[in-house]
Amino acid sequence: MLRFVIKRLILAIPTLWAVLTTVFVLVRVVPGDPTIAILGDQASEGARAELRDKLGLSKPILAQYVDFMSQILTGDLGRSLSTNRPIADDVLAVLPYTIELTLAALVVGTVLGVPLGVLAAKNRNGFADWFARIFSLAGVSFPAFVSGILLLLVFAVELRWFPVISSANAADPVERLRALVLPALNLGLLMVAYVTRVTRSGMLKALSEDYVRTARAKGLPYRTVVWRHAFRNVLVPIVTVVGLYLGVLIGNAVLTEIVFNRPGIGKLIVTALNQRDYSLLQGLMVVSAFAIVLANILTDLTYGLVDPRVKTQ
Amino acid sequence: MTAALRDDFIPDAEPPALVVDELTTQIRVGRTWYDAVRGISFAVRPRETLALVGESGCGKSLTALSVMGLLPAGVGRVSGGRIVVDGVDMTAADEPTRESMRGDRIGMIFQEPMTSLNPVLPIGFQVAESLIQHRGLSKKAALNRARELLELVRVPAAASRLDAYPHQFSGGMRQRVMIALALACDPKVLIADEPTTALDVTIQAQVLALMADVQKREGLALLLITHNLGVVASVADRVMVMYGGDVVESGPVRAFFARPSHPYSEALLAAMPRIDGDTPLQPIAGQVPTLTQMPTGCRFATRCALRHDRCAELPPLTPVGDDPNHLVRCWARMSP
Ligand SMILES: Nc1ncnc2c1ncn2[C@@H]1O[C@H](COP(=O)(O)OP(=O)(O)OP(=O)(O)O)[C@@H](O)[C@H]1O
Ligand SMILES: [Mg+2]
Predict the structure, then answer these.
(1) What is the average per-residue pLDDT within A282-291?
(2) CB count in 10 Å sphere of residue A305
(3) Which parts of the sequence belong to the ABC transmembrane type-1 domain (chain A) (predicted)?
(4) What's the farthest any 2 CA atoms get from each other in chain A?
(5) B75, exposed or middle or buried, with CB in 10 Å at 0-12, 13-18, 19+?
C-alpha cells in the first residue's frame, strides 16, 4: 500500500507541473494589456512601465516562468495588487470556509445519494426507484444559483429555520453549523443526483453478477448479499463519481458562496475580478488547481482501499 | 413421491437426500409464462452421482436453480411439483427456511469460475462466510476451517492464500475454491452445474477427480450437470437425459450406454467425440425449438427420424430393455 501511495504521489508531479504551466500561459495569452486592465486606458506610459516592472512582466518570458515556478515551490503566491497583502495569507484566511462547505456538501451527497441509489436498485421500478430517478433528473437540471435562491426563500425567508444572512464565521459552533446547512444542501443536492444515478446503475449491474448468485447460494440473508457482496463492488464507480465531482464542487462552491454570501474562495474570486486584481486571480487559480489535483490523488488512493485489484497489480 | 422413486435400484438404501417430484419451472416471455422444465422427477441418494445431460437450453440450469430456490426473480418460477432436500420440503418452505438450507445442507458449484467469486473479498473469507452464517463460528475459527477446506481441495499453500483475492488465482484454482466454498458446511446435496466446462482440458480431469473423491469421502448426493457424455461414463451412477424441458431417458449408466434408447440419446452418443471425450458435442441436425414454439407432444418430434402421428401426444416414461430402472419417453421405443 505504501508503495502505491508513493507511486501515486510521484505521478502527481507531472500533472501539477502541467497545470501550473497552463495557468502561467493562460494569464499571459488573455488578450489585452494587463497594465491597461489594472490602471485603466488613461494611465501614463511611465505608470504602466512601472507596474510592468513591479509585476515582473518586463523580464523575458522564460525568466518570468522560472520566477513563477520557484515562487510557488516556496509557497509564495506573490502580493495582491489591490491590497498589497501576501496572497497566500488572504487565501489561507478564507480557505477553511470553502473546505468546510465542500466537505459538508460531499457528506450530504454521499449520505443521501448512496442509500437512495441502493434502495432504488433493490426495488427496481418500485416507488423508491421512481422517486430516485425523478429526483436525480431534477437535481442535475437545476443550476446552483436557482436552487440556492429557492432554498433561501423556503427555509430561511418563509420557514425561518435557518439564517438568511450567513454568519459562517460566527464563534458559536451551533450558529456556524446552522449557517452551513443551507449552502451545504444546495451544493450537495446536485451531487446527490449524480451519486444516486451511479449507485443505482452500479447496483443493478452488480446484483445480476454471478458472484451475487454465489452469495445467495451460501444462504446469506438478502441484506448481507446486497451490502457486503453487491455494494462493495459498486464502491469503485461511487468513488470515481465522488472524486470527479469533488472538482466540480470546488467550482460550484463559488456560486453557492456568492448566493449565500459566505466568506470563501468564491467571494475572493469576485473581489479579485471587481478589483482587476490580476495577481490575486492567478494565485486563486493556482490554489484551485492544487485542490483539484489533491482531490484526484485522494480518489486514486481510495481506489486502492476499495478495490484489491488496484494495489496488487 | 411415487414417480420420483420409481427408478429405485438399491433395495433398502438410505433415503434420498434430494427428491424432485413432478417439478415444473416456467419462464416468462413477454406476458406469458412458458414451461421450460416440464414435470421432471428424480431422486439422489447419499454417495450417489446423478448426471443430467442435454443440449444447451434444455433446462438443466433451470432445474438446478429451481432446487436451490435461486430462479431469477420475475423471470422464472416453480409452478408445480415438490422439491425435498434432506427431508425439508423446499417448495412449501418460506424464504428464511430456504436461506437456512442453502449453503448449509445443499450447495452449488457454478459453471463460471472466473466470475462466480466476489472480486473484492478475500478467498478465505468467501469460503468461511457460510460457516459464520450457518454454524455461528467466530471469524477466526471459520477461517481456520476454510484453510482446512482449501487443503482438502488441494489449493497449494492454502494457509498463506486465505488473504488472496480471486484475480490472483487461475480458473482451475478458482473452481477448487468454489468447491471448498460449497462444501464448507458439509452439505448433504451438492449440485455442480457444468463445473469443468470453462476449464482447460487437463484441469477438467483434475477437478472432476477431486470432486468425485470428495463426494465419496463426505457421502454427498451429487447432481452433476454436464453435456459431456465422457464425463457421465466415468463418474456417474445414473444418468438422466433432458430435451426441451422433458426427461426423455433415464437409468443406470451401464444400462444407458449399453442400450441408449431415445432417438435423441442415440444422436447425442453418435455425436460424441471418440477418443478423449473432451471437445463439446457436435450439433445434432436441426435446432431446439424456442420456448414459445415448443410442440405440444414430444418436443423432439421436430428433429426426429422416427416421428409418426402419435408423437403429437407426449409419451410416458416407460421401462425399456432388461433393467427395470432404465426408462425412455418414446412411442417408437416402448417395449410392446
Ligand atoms: N434468465 C432467463 N431469462 C429468459 N430465459 C431464460 C432464462 N434462463 C433460462 N432461460 C430459458 O430457459 C431455457 C432453459 O435454460 P437453461 O439455462 O436451463 O439451459 P441449460 O440446459 O442449462 O443450457 P446450457 O447448457 O447452455 O447451460 C432456455 O430456453 C433459456 O433460453
Ligand atoms: Mg446451464
Answers:
(1) 86
(2) 13
(3) 95-303
(4) 84
(5) exposed
All cell numbers assigned to A124: 427496481
Determine, for residues A219 and B104 on separate chains, whether the beta-carbon distance falls below 8 Å.
Answer: yes
Query: Measuring CA to CA, which residue among A286, A248, A262, A298 is closest to residue A166?
Result: A262
CA B8, CA B42: separation in Å to the nearest integer?
A: 10
The residue type of B157 is A
Beta bridge partners of residue B192, listed in sequence order: B109, B224
Last residue of a domain, one of B184, B216, B238: B184
Answer whether residue B156 is part of any domain: yes
C-alpha cell recorded at residue B144: 481456520
What grid cell was written down for B191?
Answer: 449440485
Owner of C-alpha cell 456417474: B236
Indicate the Cα dihedral angle B208, B213, B219, B225, nearest 10°.
Answer: 10
Q: Tell the residue nearest (CA) to atom 2 of ligand 1.
A: B75
Residue B103 Cβ inside 6 Å of ligand 1? The answer reads no
Residue nearest to atom 8 of ligand 1 (CA): B62
- When divided into structural domains, chain B yields a total of 2
**Position with higher pLDDT, B242 vs B218:** B242
Q: CA B22, CA A98: separation in Å to the nearest integer?
A: 68
**In terms of residues, how long is chain A?**
313
- CA dist., res. B94 & res. A103, Å (int): 45
Is pTM beyond 0.95 here?
no
What's the pLDDT band for B1 if we cut at 50, 70, 90? very low
Query: pLDDT digits over A232-247, tens only?
Result: 999 989 998 888 888 7
Q: In angstroms, rounded to a whole number, what is the distance separating the alpha carbons of residues B16 and B19?
A: 6
Question: Strands B238-243 and B49-53: what pairing?
Answer: parallel
Instruction: For residue B25, list its beta bridge partners.
Output: B37, B78
Radius of gyration of chain A (CA): 24
Q: Which domains does chain A have, with CATH numbers?
A: 2-73 (no CATH), 91-311 (1.10.3720.10)
Say what the ipTM of the complex is.
0.88
* Cβ contact, residue pair B68, A233, below 8 Å: no
Chain B, nearest residue to A229 by Cα: B118
Q: Whose CA is nearest to atom 31 of ligand 1?
A: B57
In a domain? residue B140: yes
| Element (DSSP H or E) covering residue B171 | helix B171-183
How far apart, in whole angstroms, are the C-alpha atoms of residue A260 and residue A162?
Answer: 11
Q: What are phi and psi of A223, to 5 degrees?
A: -60, -45
Residue A85 in contact with residue A92, Cβ under 8 Å? no
Domain boundary (B122, B155, B184) is at B184
Q: How far is B97 from chain A (nearest CA, A)?
A: 10
